[in-house]
Amino acid sequence: MNKIIALVGMPGTGKSVVSDFFELQGYASIYFGGVTMDTMQDKGLEPNEENEKRVREELRKKHGMAAYAILNLPKIDEALKGGNVIVDGLYSWSEYKVLKERFGAQLVVLAIASPRADRYARLAKRKIRPLSEEQATSRDYAEIENLEKGGPIAIADLTIINDGTIKDLVNRLEEMFGVEESEE
User: Fold this and answer.
1) Burial zone of 51 (CB within 10 Å; 0-12 exposed, 13-18 middle, 19+ buried)
2) Of 115, 137, 148, 161, whose CA is between 20 and 30 Å from 121?
């Protein structure tokens, strides 16, 4: 039976690096945030933190707190036919419940955690949509207060701490998932 690994974590924890790792292991990748980007493009909105936040909250207002899981179920179902799937960006408790109800034991939730100072430093250096400390703090509050983000992090099946380099994170993933070490 193919499995789904759903990544959850606050902004700047390294979810994209982890997603890339699983893609290299042959997992199909589904980025929940792609729904936000597609919606912004359809509406002709500039990609920035304010517009992203507004669109995320509008989608959840329209489809409920499980919006991203619901909107991505067809993609997940299709991808599972071909193998394992990595879902980047599980956010809400409601999304977790939809995925758990639909996929049961196939679903593994992997939380990525990092110290806040490390996350904010990474977010400030991002090439796409860098965030100031004020913007990062605002996003943290919005995700915790408005998007139920704490629940999926708390109930994760596995947690990995990303408090070092990208290579350190990849080494931890290789250990955790029994992957042969890469020769980089």
Assistant:
1) middle
2) 148
